[in-house]
């Protein structure tokens, strides 16, 4: 793809397909660049170069770096329902296994975590995910509704701590843990945060 907007030279159903392909290329390049460089150092020009398009195309679709970042890290964690009587006692294991499935090879989550630790926009996006997606899970199983925010935050601290050490910092002992070991260590802690009586 060259620097011109190829979507303007085609007609019919080809136009939306080209537009969608361009957006996918931009977002893929943005995720890799944000993950590698962080929010502040990543530039529209570098992202456009990675996507093999002109920087004006990035601006056309996403207006600015803030808009591009928001689109690049928009994510649905697809958290499982743990509210059933047969799933509540096993909620910790279910959630840990789900997050391991998400983290393995997911450049969106890697970019979000890396940027969230160093930039206000990233931190706000992570706060939104906590509020919109983790809180409802905690509400499903928490014995006291008033404790839901604290319990969701504690759950996040464990899951994000694992992700940071295993996928961002790549600490050898964390990287070396087998999946079954991670589940065995972490699931009881998540279960306690969600369902145990308050200390």
Question: Which word captures the global form?
Answer: elongated
Structural class of the secondary elements?
A: mainly alpha
The strand count comes to 0
Oligomer: single chain
Give a short account of the largest sheet. none
Alpha carbon gap, first and last residue: 59 Å
Output the helix-strand order: HHHHHHHHHH
* Low-pLDDT residue intervals, each spanning 5 or more residues: 1-12
Mean pLDDT: 87
Percentage of residues in DSSP E strands? under 5%
Structure description:
The chain is mainly alpha-helical and 199 residues long. It contains ten helices and no strands. The protein has helices at 14-41, 44-51, 55-62, 65-72, 91-103, 107-116, 120-141, 148-168, 172-176, 179-195. Helix 1 (14-41) crosses helix 4 and helix 7 packs across helix 8. The longest helix is centred in the first third of the chain and has 28 residues, at 14-41.
